[in-house]
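Appendix C reproduces, verbatim, an entry submitted by the partner laboratory led by Prof. M.T., so that reviewers can inspect both the input and the predicted structure.
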Amino acid sequence: MNDTIQPGLETTQQFDVDDARVTRHMGDDLGVYGTPFLLRDIERVCHNLLQEHLDENQSTVGTYVNLKHLAPTLEGARVTLTAKVSAVDRRAVTFEVIVRDEVEELARAEHGRFVVEKSKLKQRLQDKAEKMRGE
């Protein structure tokens, strides 16, 4: 893991709340930015930031999210997601995330990611698949 991953490392990205990010479970006229899609965006932004600082054989996996979805966001809105590394403990990285639309803060989250060696993860998954097949 690169030593450039330190508290304070930060990125800001903007997204449009398009149809793929909208949930319509309350009806077509009440489509809003769905929490599962917000969570996916948080994970992707944090993953991508770390990936810029890792070796080719390294990646990250999410370990937890404490997400507070505070306000609805309309389809078509522009959201700004800011993710900042708040702690690093060996290969465990913690982020503080704030998400806003044009009007207000719509979410806050704490998100944990863990740096993995892809080759070791691949072997672990193969071993598990064999166990699941009874081999």
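The longest strand covers residues 105-117. Additional entries are available on request from the coordinating office.
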